[in-house]
Amino acid sequence: MTPIKTAAISTTALLSLTLAGCGPLGGANIPSASAPITQTEAQQGAQAHPQLLNEFGGAMTGSQAQYVEQVGKNIAVQSGLGNARESFTVSLLNSPVNNAFAIPGGYIYTTRQLVGLMNNEAELAGVLGHEVGHVAARHSQRRQAKAQQNSLLGAAGAILSGVLLGNSGIGQQIGQTLMQGSQLLTLKFSRSQELEADDLGIRYLNQAGYDPHAMGTVLRSLAMQNSLDARVQGRDDARIPAWASTHPDPASRVQSALAKAQGGTGVTNRDTFLTRIDGLLYGDDPKQGVIEGRQFIHPDMRLSFTAPQGFYMVNGTRAVTISGQSGRAQLTLAPYNGNLNNYVGTVFAGLSKEQQVQPQGIQRTTVNGIPAAYGTARVNSGNGQVDVTVFAYEFANNQAYHFLAISPAGQASAFNSMFGSMRKISAQEAANVIPRVIDVVTVGANDSTQSLASRMAYTDNQLERFRVLNGLSGNENVSRGQKVKIVVRGR
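== Peptidase M48 Ste24p ==
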């Protein structure tokens, strides 16, 4: 979450977002390889590109970003699209979410977190090739009519609010408000389209001389990471968050991708890849705030809070989302004129266009010395009544932040401990927030999987984190002279 509020992505831009996927190779639905990117597509992508960069932490620069761009443009050439090297724009995003996506006009994206999970250049080429396949197959255009009938934001609101809000207009609109700071701003494509993009990615890997098995191994790493995330966060569903959280579960695609690569050979460029990503930022960027267990700390905003027991957090560029069985909340900010009551009222007023949402009353209080105001409204949704709470805090420099929380009627108190945990942090505590980075090391004679894992900059699940980070499945272990990744504290 960044301290500067950015504008919400327009519906037009959102409707154009696309994610990976493809059907059987050689089928009638594989597009002509010679069709160049049209001027209309280029304009559509150029319009959405700056907004997407804003939403996903901005584009990274430097040697690591240049390397990702080089691999992406090289694999884009394999699509056969006219002028592909010049037409494609490849961006490495400063986001801690495992995500990759594409939009019309040849704009493809991958997050640094997803790159950090990869273990060789062929895997990077496979993921980017998967997204190039979306552009080549015109998946966005093929889904556009359906998207216009069921707007992305409405669908996103339904995904977010689930059984709490149902599919009523008011439910979707409140869900949309919560969605605006999340990382789920992408269309969900059909399984056949996902598999089609996998197929195209494998085709491009073969044509470029890479090991085509890389598509299967990176999907396997994603599945392992999703499972680990679920265990760490105390969730039962290991599929969320997944690759962009809108792709089908990668675990279900691993065997398919590996089977399609059967017999294929090629290079992986493992050591080159690891050398090029050495030092890459991993996990949360302190400039966007960091999550440590159930605690969120933002050194620039100088604030911290603790999520309720049993809830997990996802840190987005413009909001922090807190989710659990008893509801969902987000911490974000809005324009502030110096009056907290008005601030709370304005947030409620912006929740719905179809009906007024008004709190039963706005109460004033103080939380750990911070002036605060809050109110709760009971709302009729498609699945019954829910309680919507806005809890706002006044910080220095005429700035206010607020939680927007949704819970089943009568269960709003589930968030009380979180509301009461908000506090200002000292300059020293802010200075102690140090980012994590990837450190590539060579396995020595006395090193083992366990000893290397003990160097991971985490207090929990060190061995599991190390194994997932290095794609070690089953009984695989490290060997002397091998390059591996560990996560350490940076400077």
